[in-house]
TrEMBL record:
EC number: 5.3.1.29
Taxonomic path: Archaea, Methanobacteriati, Methanobacteriota, Stenosarchaea group, Halobacteria
Key words of the record: Carbohydrate metabolism, Isomerase
One Pfam short name: IF-2B
Organism, as annotated: Halorubrum trapanicum
Additional detail: Reaction proceeds via a cis-phosphoenolate intermediate.
Entry protein name: Ribose 1,5-bisphosphate isomerase
Keyword set includes Isomerase: yes
Binding-site positions, substrate: 23-26, 71, 215-216, 241
Length: 323
């Protein structure tokens, strides 16, 4: 490891995020914070950095950049890096190392607590006997449904499979394990089943200052259909999903993934020149979302900007910016 080369553990985490072995905004955030702690431990031992605080700091920033470059849409990733790197302090490598490992641990603890707290808020929106519809796999959305079950409510679920990667299967299994009767459907059956649904619950990868919700591709279509059917839809999202750069007019980059997730190589050859596109996320305009449920309570999407300003001020620096 040179002074700017990330430790093997960081490269492994980055690779797992890029290939989606580690996926979902909250899980990506905690893996990134933990990878920074591993970087700190490795850099405190490595020849190039062990006795040079500046080289140590440079290696932490390089690790941050490597982790950041994996996937562009979930803001929980740069927010996690920012949380840990902004708490890096001390004039010796040992102090710097400790500040990073402490911040990483505190971040992961806060993440878990926030999910528990928002779960209670989301659960209060669900009534005994409700059927919920889900899209993709969101640990924040699941926390709401699981908390409702723990409150003694009987909940059943219609789970969209979520093409192309079928994260709905993970949701279905987790809900089944929580004692929730589950019906798995293909994405295009959603509108038909909305007539049997009392609430749609989804997660978020990023939330923009105007209340726009960026989540798995298909969320916006589901939201429009839910509105047309009169079914309320909520986004369960811890505040690390709030995108500080949107406060200053930036837009959220939508990840385009490889066409091989959509079409196998044999079919690819058969269809020849036809273009295949695979956007991983979309934006649901605030007017189609009934509530954003966070660990600080529920918000109408249009008012989320107030919470954002409180938490981030008027914006946020790149997580690896030198201070
Ligand atoms: O869109 C996805 C996952 O997309 P992908 O599978 O492409 O990562 C999830 O709804 C959000 O990340 C929220 O998840 P959580 O609530 O667990 O943070």
């Amino acid at each position: 490891m040179t002074d700017t080369e990330p430790a093997p553990a960081v490269r492994e985490t980055a690779e797992s995020i890029a290939t989606m072995e580690i996926r979902g905004a909250a899980t990506i955030a905690s893996a990134a914070a933990e990878a920074l702690a591993e970087q700190a431990e490795a850099a405190a031992e490595a020849d190039a950095t062990a006795s040079d605080p500046e080289a140590f700091r440079a290696s932490m920033r390089a690790a941050g950049r490597t982790l950041r470059e994996t996937r562009p849409t979930a803001v929980s990733l740069p927010n996690a890096l920012r949380y840990v790197l902004q708490r890096m302090e001390g004039d010796s490598v040992d102090r710097l190392r400790r500040s990073v490992t402490d911040a990483s641990e505190a971040f992961v603890e806060q993440l878990d607590r926030a999910q528990e707290d928002l779960g209670q808020v989301g659960a209060n929106r669900l009534a005994d006997g409700d059927t919920v519809m889900t899209h993709c796999h969101s640990t924040d959305a699941l926390a709401c449904i699981e908390a409702a079950v723990e409150q003694g409510k009987s909940i059943s679920a219609v789970v969209k499979e979520t093409r192309p990667r079928q994260q709905g299967h993970i949701t279905a299994e987790q809900l089944r394990d929580a004692g929730v009767p589950v019906t798995l459907i293909v994405d295009s059956a959603a509108r038909r089943y909305l007539d049997e649904v009392d609430h749609v619950v989804v997660g978020a990868d990023s939330i923009a200052a105007d209340g726009g919700v960026i989540n798995k591709i298909g969320t916006s279509g589901l939201a429009v259909n839910a509105r047309e059917r009169g079914v309320p839809i909520m986004t369960a999202a811890q505040t690390i999903k709030l995108h500080p750069e949107t406060l200053t007019g930036h837009t959220v980059e939508i990840e385009m993934r490889d066409e091989s997730e959509v079409i196998d190589s044999e079919s690819r050859e058969e269809i020849g020149e036809i273009a295949v596109e695979n956007p991983a996320f979309d934006v649901t305009p605030p007017r189609y979302m009934d509530a954003i449920v966070t660990e600080h309570g529920q918000f109408p999407p249009e008012s989320i900007v107030t919470l954002m300003r409180e938490l981030f001020g008027e914006g946020a620096a790149e997580p690896w910016a030198e201070r």
